[in-house]
Amino acid sequence: MALSIKEFKFRLIETIPLILLFFISLNGSSIIDLKFFSVNVHYILIYYWVLRQPLTLGYGFIFLSGIITDVVLGFPIGANALSLLIVAGVAAYVRVVTVRIKLINDWVSFIPALLLANLVYFFSLSFSEYSIDYLYLFYNSIFTFAFYPIFWVAFSILLNFMRS
Amino acid sequence: MDTSREDVGIAIRSAFLKRGTQQRFSLVVLIVFSVALLFLETVETKPLNYIRSFIKDTIYRGSLIVSSPSNGIKNIYNTTKDHFNLYSDYRQIKNENNKLKNQISESSYLILENTQLRKLIDEQTASPSNLVSSRVMLDNQSPYLNSFIINSGSNRKIKNGMAVLDGKNFVGRTVDVNFFSSRVLLVSDLNSKIPVIIEPSGHHAILSGHGKNKPTLEYLPENHTIKNGDKIYTSGKEGIFSPGLPIGEVIIDDQVRVSLFSDLSQITFINIYLGDSNINK
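Predict the joint structure of the above. Result:
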């Protein structure tokens, strides 16, 4: 049965987070790296959508996106996929245990997600004998945490739009 | 107390083990699969390498298509920047040209002398016939890994560990060769350690990448006589690369840094020296 234009628009808007997920993976831009700060958009995107609208981003897609990021950025296959799944796992756990949707709740619970994901990332790269700048990784985590509310607002607008 | 512990257990089970509505995979299964993939990365067998090459080639092509709009914007930005810098570049090039004119007579004598000496020691020199030209396919600037993808792989006899040149300047080595694409690890990357020789002092050292910053010279002798402007070449030690490939010149501040001859962010075409693959032998 053919889709109506309205339905098509709805489906398209609904897939925006998914498109964004694969775009940043394929484009190798999971980290916005500017002069004074760098933010891991990949983590924020996955954390927010798994927490707020879990049906939008399936775990399979997150895994695939991690594999693509690993290949594009030249890391051992599985390293990014694993850390992204950890972020998704923490988000899924927080979703189960929280009732009220508040920015502050999401923001604070993002800390263990970041810590766990980066710990896993660190171990998987150490295991594969890859050297990266761990100080940079630390700064990146701090700025990713700091910038979370901005993305939270942007994604909330999109989510409200999807729901409406 | 017991109830709260049970609650946590139920929440974890619900988050990690259950598939949930419309989720095709449970998180734990995918996490285990990712760990298995990480282990498989360390296994080197022919069928696995073929599968890896195929997956990587496919993803690189997809990435090339997705990156084309951002690459287009980047090109426009670079072109505009070049136009704005036209006058200052012209002044700089004019000064360099004057200096080079003065050095021509000196260098032609040195080339002649060098050729004669190389003949004497029967050393193999890089000939254009064992160079393969290739185009930079993907240059996704990662803050963690300084590398790019080129559009040649084992189909053009490229192997891991071959020297990659921008013109005649050494810029990195091949690290991940697929059928139709390869990854080039640049000298500025944290994982890059290149044995070099410094001229005119003749000291040997290791050129070590530091990510964004300029690479530094490590393992220099204690009483070295290196000064600003000294030239750095590959030493050919350990037989990894041919000796005498130019890399950059010395800048001394708090550390002994190297200003590369090539601007790594502006490379479009590269040459791969096929005679250098000793790492995989």
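Chain A touches chain B through 49 residues (CB under 8 Å).
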